[in-house]
Specification:
Layout lengths: L4 E4 L5 H10 L4 E4 L10 H8 L3 E4 L10 E4 L14 H11 L7 E4 L7 H14 L8 E4 L16 E5 L2 H11 L6 E3 L3 H32 L3 H8 L33 H27 L8 E5 L15 H10 L3 E5 L7 E2 L2 E2 L6 H7 L2 E4 L8 H7 L3 E3 L10 E2 L1
Parallel strand pairs: 1-2, 1-4, 2-3, 4-5, 5-6, 7-8, 9-10, 9-13, 13-14, 14-15
Antiparallel strand pairs: 6-7, 11-12
């Protein structure tokens, strides 16, 4: 069966799109831009193939579809900017096979102006076609919620190079969701992604700072949030944690606009300090119980960036482990999603029996409350438990 859709990049953005497309009955070809295709388990791949999906390493397949969506990852580079290397490579691969009347959509996280200023020239040079005349070009910010329990398709925002481009992209996404929102253009749609990502990071930074201050004041922040979220309007609950991971990279626009987003820059500083604060709290708890961090046995529970996922992108557990090791602690870990974990290129010992390990550890640090954890039982077994997520029953553990 010929494919209607090509998803280029099968990581955190492309894989959910491919899964949604085949669930909607759209024959789809997946083209990997890197090793991220390995996140498909054999069982998942079999299920998707039975409903119209196929993996391909043949670029010629990209020239046989009506819609091509570029979902390549854009991680933060060493300079702090988004690395667009995989997006450029995907665009060059597609450009050589691009046919007239194809709709090309970019979903990768990018800064405003990228679709028109970077993607468009690559596609036009490589294909000899003109965007807006010979093929449609649009941007739609990915709205995936990895590991989320609500599987209702999120409304999709579409911004095209021309009104006709917007409508073509809207027609495609209309097959996946009941609500399509049309932005004025490419830059507006790109800026939606920027606002949504920065909103998350700024609000997490606020509650992270509140966590530090409330601990000093002897105030239970978790109870404060529980009460505040009953407000029917004007408040959205965010919760503190040991740091912020994930693939959504905040951007303060420094170097891209005459005035950067100062609040985003401050939020990044606050969030980046959280692993250090967690280690400080851990060392202080050990001291309060007559133990030193040097030589202490510390068990880290849940070292992925989000509960119930195997994804380690930006997870604060790595820095926490490094800082604990620098203090001389003996670090081990448990995570049902990671059979092996390396820090500083060295394997970290994995606890086989969770509750025996918690009972033997001088301190247990809960970093991600995976659903498989019996937190009540864990709080009973652990000698000393620091809960960085407020997931344990009230009074059962020390909280961040």
């Amino acid at each position: 069966m010929p494919a209607d859709l090509a998803v280029i990049g099968l990581g955190p953005y492309g894989l959910p799109l491919a899964q949604a497309a085949v669930a909607a009955g759209i024959p789809t070809v997946g083209y990997a831009t890197g090793p991220e295709a390995g996140s498909l388990s054999p069982a998942e791949l079999r299920r998707m193939r039975s409903t119209g999906f196929r993996l391909s390493t043949d670029p010629a397949q990209l020239g046989r579809v009506r819609t091509a969506v570029i979902c390549a990852p854009t991680p933060r580079g060493a300079d702090g900017e988004l690395d667009l290397g995989q997006v450029e490579a995907a665009a060059r691969t597609l450009a050589g096979r691009l046919r007239p009347h194809t709709t090309v959509i970019l979903e990768s996280p990018v800064l405003p102006g990228t679709t028109e200023e970077l993607l468009r020239p690559i596609l036009e040079r490589g294909s000899g076609l003109r965007a807006g005349r010979d093929f449609h070009l649009a941007y739609s910010p990915s709205r995936t919620d990895p590991g989320g329990r609500d599987h209702t398709p999120a409304p999709r925002v579409i911004g095209g190079l021309t009104p006709a481009c917007t409508e073509s992209a809207a027609t495609f996404y209309g097959r996946l969701t009941d609500k399509v929102v049309r932005a004025r253009g490419l830059r507006e749609a790109e800026t939606v992604r920027l606002l949504e990502t920065n909103f998350r990071h700024v609000n997490i930074a606020l509650v992270n700072e509140m966590a530090v201050v409330c601990h000093e004041l002897g105030v239970d922040l978790w109870d404060v949030i529980r009460c505040a979220e009953t407000k029917p309007s004007g408040f959205q609950a965010f919760r503190p944690g040991p740091g912020v991971g994930g693939h959504g990279v905040p951007q303060d626009l420094t170097g891209h606009a005459s005035r950067g987003l100062r609040m985003v820059e401050l939020a990044q500083q606050v969030n980046e300090r959280m692993p250090h604060y967690v280690v400080q709290r851990a060392a202080a708890l050990l001291n309060e119980h007559g133990k030193s961090a040097r030589g202490a046995r510390v068990l880290l529970l849940g070292v992925t960036y989000k509960a119930d996922l195997a994804d380690q992108q930006g997870a604060p557990a790595h820095e926490i482990a490094v800082r604990l090791m620098e203090l001389g602690a003996s670090v081990s870990y448990h995570d049902p999603h990671l059979p092996a974990w390396h820090v500083l290129d060295r394997p970290v010992p994995r606890a086989d029996s969770l509750y025996e390990a918690a009972a033997a550890a001088d301190l247990t640090l809960l970093l991600q409350p995976h659903r498989t954890y019996d937190l009540q039982g864990l709080s009973v077994k652990a000698q000393l438990l620091l809960d960085t997520r407020g997931a344990t029953p009230t009074g059962a553990a020390h909280r961040l």
